[in-house]
Design a protein that fits this description.
Blueprint: E1 6-12, H1 13-27, E2 45-51, H2 58-82, H3 86-96, H4 102-109, H5 120-125, E3 142-145, E4 148-151, H6 153-181
Parallel strand pairs: 1-2
Antiparallel strand pairs: 3-4
């Protein structure tokens, strides 16, 4: 990622183990399943730092810890074993992920899909309404008001997250091609290990 090789991930204590599982998975995924062109070693050194869980009620904190533990287990035992290339990770995020897949985002935005509605305490700990916004009507993520499309902060967060993931995948893919070409970034000449192009 932009030439950085040592990365420090900082997040809350309740989220650190799941974050570690995700970052270890993504940053160790080979570019392809071709064993000759992909290396199982990573050029990245990943470090993790957790912050204290401040400002959460004990019941909300326990709900988050439970949710994160299930997510960590899912990453380690299922996702990391099933999606073993960047292409596979990309397809999972854009087509199958319960929260980030576009079809699920649209259904939730239309109020048709309440993923995770079984844990109201968890939703409340993140400042969400449990199932309605008080008037008995489901809270919408995407609305059309006064001739304008209005997006909730949830949608904007998802878009920002996907842009970050796509950027990581793109940077890793481009790194492979830069390493394969052995080009000197300060000149247009190919290094001496390759024949010169005419």
């Amino acid at each position: 990622i932009t030439g950085w090789r040592r990365i420090l991930v900082v997040t809350n204590e309740f989220h650190i183990h799941r974050s570690k599982a995700i970052f270890d998975w993504i940053f160790h995924v080979p570019l392809s399943s071709d064993t000759e062109s992909s290396s199982t070693t990573t050029p990245y050194e990943l470090y993790y730092l957790s912050c204290n869980n401040v400002g959460l009620a004990n019941d909300a904190l326990e709900s988050r810890k439970s949710h994160e533990a299930r997510g960590e287990t899912n990453v380690r035992t299922k996702l990391a074993k099933e999606y073993t290339t960047l292409k596979g990770v990309w397809e999972f995020l854009t087509e199958k992920h319960d929260f980030y897949a576009a079809n699920r985002l649209v259904r939730r935005g239309m109020g048709e899909d309440e993923a995770g509605s079984d844990n109201n305490l968890l939703k409340l700990s993140y400042g969400k309404s449990t199932s309605t916004d008080g008037g008995g009507e489901a809270k919408k993520m995407i609305e059309y008001k006064g001739g304008k499309i209005v997006l909730s902060l949830d949608v904007l967060f998802v878009v920002a997250f996907l842009v970050a993931i796509f950027g990581i995948c793109f940077a890793l893919r481009n790194k492979k091609y830069r390493n394969d070409s052995k080009m000197n970034p300060f000149s247009n000449q190919v290094s001496s290990s390759h024949p010169k192009l005419v």
